[in-house]
Amino acid sequence: MVRITTPALAEKYIESQISALREQIGDKKVLLALSGGVDSSVVAALLIKAVGKQLVCVHVNHGLLRKGEPEQVIEVFRNQMDANLIYVDAVDRFLDKLAGVSDPETKRKIIGAEFIRVFEEEARKQEGIEFLAQGTIYPDILESDDGVKAHHNVGGLPEDLNFRLVEPVKLLFKDEVRVVGKALGLPDGMVYRQPFPGPGLGVRCLGAITRDRLEALRESDAILREEFDRNGLAGKVWQYFTVVPDFKSTGIRDGKRTFDWPVIIRAVNTRDAMSATVEDVPPCSSTSPPGSHPRFPA
Q1: Among 67, 104, 62, which residue's Cα sits nearest to residue 245?
Q2: For residue 192, is it left (φ>0), alpha (ψ between -120 and 50) or beta?
Q3: Residue 109's closest CA among 98, 100, 120, 119?
Q4: Predicted pLDDT of residue 188
C-alpha cells in the first residue's frame, strides 16, 4: 500500500473512504467515540463528509483527560464544525471503577470496557444506531498483536459488542493520519495535537489512581505544554508529557522543604509511532530558571 505523504494522495484516499463509508453505513446511524485527538477527529471529519448528521459523536469526559480538553472538543466540533455532539460527564463512574487498580494493563481493559458500555447506553437513546466508529490506526493493531500494550479499541472490546465497527484509518500510521487531516481542513491545533493514549492520564498516573494525584498530573502536564509552547519546543518534539508515580519525595518550594509527588518528564520523537528516540530537551531556558515557575518547585 502506498504511504500517504502528499495532499494529492490524501485527497485520493479521502475520496475512496467517503465512497466506502457510504456503502458500508447506508442510511443507518453511526456512533463515534470522539476524544478530540488526531485519530478520532480525522474519522469524525471523514464521516461528516460521508454521512453528515447520521454521525452521532459522543465525547466522554472520564476524568482522565488533559486540562481544558473537554472544553476544546465542544468548541471545535459542536461550535465550529456543527457536529452532532453528545457530551457525557462520566468522571465519577470511571474513577470509581478504577479505585485501587494499579496494574496498567488492567486499567486499560477497565477503561476500554467502560467506554463501550457508555456508548451502548447512548446508543439506546438513539434510533437506528448500528455502527461504532473508532480512530484505530495501524500501530494500535500492531502493538496489541505483539503484546506491547493493549489498546481499548483493539484488545479492550467486550465479546458481546452489539455494533458493527467502522475504522476508516486503521491501515494508516500517525503521520499519514495528519496528512489526511490537513486535507480535510481540520485546524492545525487539532491535526498536530500530541498523540494521547485511549486510557488518557490513567496510565500516566502510575499505581492506583487517587483524585488528588490525578489533578497534580493534569496540572503538571498543562505546565509542561505551556513551557514547551513558550520556549519554541512544541513543534520540534513529537510527544512530551508528564508522569506522576505513586510515591512522594522531598524538594524545595518557596524556599521551604516540601514532601510531594515527583514529576517525570518524557519527550520523544518518531515518524511512525512504532519506534522513538529521546529528544535532548534543554533543562531550562534563560526565561525559566529552575524553580521559577509559580507551580513548579525546584
Answers
A1: 104
A2: alpha
A3: 98
A4: 86
Reported as a single tens digit per residue, the pLDDT across 239-253 is 899 999 999 999 888
Sign for the CA dihedral angle at 72, 29, 42, 224 comes to positive
CATH of 7-195, one of 1.10.3720.10, 3.40.50.620, 2.60.40.10, 3.10.20.30: 3.40.50.620
- DSSP-based three-state secondary structure for 31: strand
Strand partners, 249: 260
Alpha-carbon dihedral 164, 169, 173, 178, rounded to 10 degrees: -140
**Rounded (10°) angle between helices 174-183 and 7-25:** 90
Compute, in degrees rounded to 10, the torsion defined by CA atoms 158, 160, 163, 164: 80
Distances from the Cα of 213 to the Cαs of 119, 216, 244, in angstroms?
Answer: 28, 5, 8
219 Cβ neighbours under 8 A, 6+ residues apart: 67, 295
Q: In which band, very low, low, confident or very high, does the pLDDT at 286 lie, cut at 50, 70 and 90?
A: very low
pTM of structure: 0.76
Q: For 109, how many CA atoms within 13 A lie in the half-sphere containing its CB?
A: 10
Tell me the pLDDT tens digit for each residue of 118-127. 877 888 888 8
Q: pLDDT digits over 183-222, tens only? A: 998 888 789 888 788 899 999 999 999 999 999 999 999 9
In the DSSP assignment, the letter for residue 61 is E
Residue 8: band (very low, low, confident or very high) from pLDDT cuts 50, 70, 90: very high
Residue type, 274: M
C-alpha 281: how far from chain center:
23
Q: Rounded to an integer, what distance in angstroms lies between the CA atom of residue 56 and that of residue 199?
A: 21
Fold assignment, 204-278? GMP Synthetase; Chain A, domain 3 (3.30.300)
Check if the beta carbon of residue 97 is closer than 8 Å to that of residue 110: yes
- The residue assigned the cell 459488542 is 161
Please report the pLDDT score of residue 160 as a whole number. 58
